[in-house]
Amino acid sequence: MSRYRPPAPKSSPYITPEGAARLRAELDRLWRVERPEVVRALADAAAEGDRSENAEYIYRKKQLGGIDRRVRYLRKRLAVLQVVDRRPADTAQVFFGAWITVEDESGTEARFRIVGPDEFDQAPDYISMDAPLARALLKRRPGDEVTLELAAGRKTWLLLDVEYEAPRT
Q1: What is the DSSP letter of 1?
Q2: Which residue segments constitute the domains of the chain, with CATH numbers given?
Q3: At what angle do helices 35-46 and 55-80 cross, to 10 degrees?
Q4: Quick one: which H or E segment has residue 115?
Q5: Residues in a beta bridge with 27
Q6: Element (H, E) at 102
Q7: Of 13, 71, 81, 149, which has the fewest Cβ atoms less than 10 A away?
Q8: C-alpha closest to that of 10 among 66, 83, 68, 77
């Protein structure tokens, strides 16, 4: 069996200013706070002697490797991300950063924001612009319907509202 994994599909390079700030803060925290702590703990564990049976040493090496991988990923990703910090010319149409209200066939309304693939897990009402529903809604206007083929069958949504301001809670 081969260890080959096909490369991940390219994700969209767009991000909101808030998402970019979160990624920069994570990179800073990993590099300035967590990594030095792990390096100190690793040095202490290495000083204890035999490294082959030292569980603390092995754990800290894996932890350091995980931090270094995440730091490399964040540095590369932040270099290619494009921060979208302005509203589109036509605010009645769905574009990146829009707050969307949709209604499904059963009359259930849902509200969410279309964000970049690096930040959709930051809030429960964020969806990635690479998600099938978001892709179907892009460039649509209120009153338009979109239909998607899902594993559970065909589902239709009606676009009710498009906003580019923070949601009112």
Answers
A1: -
A2: 14-83 (1.10.287.180), 99-163 (3.10.50.30)
A3: 150
A4: strand 109-115
A5: none
A6: strand 99-104
A7: 149
A8: 77
CA 84 – CA 105 distance, rounded (Å): 33
pLDDT tens readout for residues 108-134: 999 999 999 999 888 889 999 999 999
Residue 51, helix vs strand vs coil: coil
- What H or E segment, with its residue span, contains residue 162? strand 153-163
What per-residue confidence (pLDDT) applies to 169? 47
Collect all residues with Cβ–Cβ distance below 8 Å to 150 and sequence separation of at least 6. Answer: none
Q: Quick one: pLDDT at residue 2?
A: 76
Q: How many angstroms separate the CA atoms of 61 and 97, rounded?
A: 39
Q: What is the DSSP letter of 83?
A: E
Dihedral of alpha carbons 109, 143, 130, 156, sign: positive
d(CA 77, CA 21): 13
